[in-house]
C-alpha cells in the first residue's frame, strides 16, 4: 500500500486509475479540475495555476505520482497554447515530487509523439520522434525533460505513450461513442472507409498498464497498447451487429484526414515485459463500452 | 521608452543590459536573485520558486521581457538538475508575459544547443541542434517551446544564442579573467595549446545585441557573436603583451577537453540584418576587460 497522487483523476483514464488503485488498497489522492469523485481524497484545484502543483505535492507528499492531467478538449487540444502550460505544470509536479521524497513517477505521453509517416508499428527505441502537432511536440518535450530529470536525480520516471483508448466516459465525439450513439438513436453512422488499422485498448487496461508502471524502479518510454492491428471497420461492424443496426452504417461518408495514417499500432513488448496483461479482448471490451453507453443515451 | 523586465539582472550579461536600457531612458525592472543594483526598479526574488515569476510579471506588466536568468554556477551548470527548473520558470514567465499584454520577449540561449562535431560555423537554420549536455538540452527544449508559444499566441519571441562573451564581471575561472588574474599576480598562466578558434564578443556588445532584438516584431533564433574566428592564443598573447608578461605564458600546460571543438563560431548575418553593430573590436574589448580587472585584482 502506497500514498499515490493521481492528476487528471476525473478524466477518461484517470477515473479508472483511481478506481483500480482504491481497489488495490492504496491511499489515493486525486487532483481534479472540476468534477468531484467518490472514494479517493480529492484535491480540487487548477494545476495550471503557477505554484498550485508544488503546493499540492508538498501537502500530500506522495510516494508515487501518476500524472495524467493535460488539456484534452476535443477539437482544441491538438493546437491549444495550453499545451505549453501543461509542460510547465508537469515539470513543476515532477520537481516537487522528487523534492518531497517521491519514489516513482509515471507521466502520460501519446502516440502523437511518433513520426506517423513511417512503417506504422511504433517501437520505443527505433521509431523516430517527430510530432506533427503542438500537442505532440509538447508531450515529446515533456518526455525529454522528464527523462533527463529522472537521470539527473536518479529517480525512476516512466513515460506511458497511450495509443487509442476506448470505454466508459470516452468523449462522445470519438469513434466508438459516436458510432454507438448514432446506432442507439437509430440514426445513420457516418464513417470513413474504415480501413485504418489502429491499436484499440479498453481504458481499464490502459489504467492497469499505468499502475503496472507505477510499481517502482521503472524508467523510460513504454507504448501502451494491445499490440494488435485492429481494422476500424471491424470495430464498427461489430458494434452494429450487437445492435442489429448494420443497415445504418455509411462507410465512406466521411473523408479520411490527410494526416491519418493507414497503420498506427504499438509494439508493446516492453510493457508486456513488465508483467502487464490486458483484461479485455476487442469483443469483450466493446461489449463493456456498449453496456455503459446503453444506460446513458 | 518602454517598461522592460530584465531577469538575471545582476548577472554578467544582465547588468550590462540594465545599464544600457537605463541609459536609453527605459523604465527598467530588474529581477535579481541576490545582489541589488543601483538604477533600475529592483525586484529581489527566487524566480525558481513556483509562482514567483508569474506574480512578478502580473505586478510589473512589462511591455518587453529580456529573460537572462538561468543557472550559471561555473563547473556546475552544465549538468545541474536546476536546468530543468529554468525551463519551467522560463515558460511561466513567458505565459504570464503574454497574458499581461507583453509585446516582445527575448530569451537567452547558447551555442551549446548546436552540434559541435560539425563544421564549426553555426547557422541558425542549417546547423543541427544536437546539444551534448543537460544545459544545452534544456536551453534547446526551452527554445522549441518558446518558439511554439510565440507562434500559437502570435507574439514575437526572439531566441538569442550567446557564443563566447567576455568582459567586466565575467566568472574568474574563465579564460580571459583567468589569464589576466594570473599575469597581474605575476604567476604563470597555464593554458592549453590555444589553437582553438572561438567567437569572442565583449559583454557590452552581447547586451546591445539582446536589446536590439527587444525592439519589437523580432522572432526566431539569432546567433549572438562577432562572426570572426579568433584564435585563443592570439587573445592570450595580446593580454600578456599589454602586461609585459609574455614570459609567464605556458601554452600546452593544460590538455584540451575531448569535447572542445577546434572551431566554434557564429554566423551572425541574421543579427547584423537587425541593424546591430558591435562597439568593441578584439583589442579595444580586451583593453576594456584588462582595465576593469586591473582595479580589482
From TrEMBL, chains A, B:
InterPro entries referenced in this protein's UniProt entry, alphabetically: Epimerase_deHydtase, Lipid_A_modif_metabolic_enz, NAD(P)-bd_dom_sf
Residues annotated as signal peptide: none
Top-level taxon in the UniProt lineage: Bacteria
NAD-dependent epimerase/dehydratase domain: residues covered: 4-225
Pfam families: Epimerase
Alphabetical list of SUPFAM superfamilies matching this protein: NAD(P)-binding Rossmann-fold domains
Protein name stated in the entry: NAD(P)-dependent oxidoreductase
Database matches in Gene3D superfamilies: NAD(P)-binding Rossmann-like Domain
Amino acid at each position: 500500500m502506497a500514498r499515490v497522487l493521481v492528476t487528471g483523476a476525473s478524466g477518461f483514464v484517470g477515473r479508472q486509475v483511481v478506481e483500480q488503485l482504491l481497489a488495490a488498497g492504496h491511499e489515493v489522492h486525486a487532483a481534479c479540475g472540476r468534477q468531484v469523485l467518490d472514494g479517493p481524497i480529492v484535491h480540487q484545484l487548477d494545476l495550471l495555476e503557477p505554484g498550485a502543483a508544488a503546493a499540492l505535492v508538498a501537502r500530500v507528499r506522495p510516494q508515487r505520482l501518476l500524472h495524467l492531467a493535460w488539456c484534452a478538449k476535443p477539437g482544441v487540444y491538438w493546437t491549444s497554447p495550453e499545451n505549453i502550460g501543461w509542460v510547465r505544470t508537469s515539470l513543476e509536479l515532477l520537481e516537487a515530487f522528487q523534492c518531497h521524497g517521491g519514489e516513482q513517477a509515471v507521466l502520460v505521453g501519446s502516440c502523437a509523439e511518433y513520426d506517423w509517416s513511417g512503417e506504422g508499428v511504433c517501437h520505443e527505441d527505433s521509431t523516430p520522434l517527430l510530432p506533427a502537432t503542438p500537442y505532440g511536440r509538447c508531450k515529446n518535450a515533456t518526455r525529454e525533460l522528464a527523462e533527463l530529470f529522472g537521470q539527473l536525480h536518479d529517480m525512476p520516471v516512466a513515460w506511458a505513450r497511450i495509443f487509442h483508448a476506448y470505454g466508459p466516459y470516452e468523449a462522445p465525439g470519438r469513434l466508438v461513442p459516436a458510432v454507438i450513439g448514432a446506432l442507439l438513436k437509430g440514426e445513420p453512422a457516418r464513417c470513413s472507409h474504415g480501413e485504418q488499422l489502429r491499436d484499440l485498448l479498453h481504458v481499464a487496461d490502459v489504467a492497469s498498464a499505468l499502475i503496472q508502471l507505477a510499481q517502482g524502479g521503472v524508467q523510460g518510454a513504454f507504448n501502451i497498447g494491445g499490440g494488435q492491428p485492429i481494422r476500424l471497420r471491424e470495430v464498427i461492424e461489430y458494434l452494429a451487429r450487437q445492435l442489429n443496426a448494420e443497415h445504418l452504417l455509411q462507410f465512406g461518408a466521411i473523408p479520411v484526414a490527410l494526416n491519418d495514417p493507414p497503420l498506427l499500432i504499438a509494439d508493446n513488448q516492453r510493457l508486456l515485459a513488465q508483467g502487464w496483461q490486458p483484461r479485455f479482448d476487442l469483443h469483450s471490451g466493446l461489449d463493456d463500452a456498449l453496456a455503459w453507453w446503453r444506460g446513458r443515451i
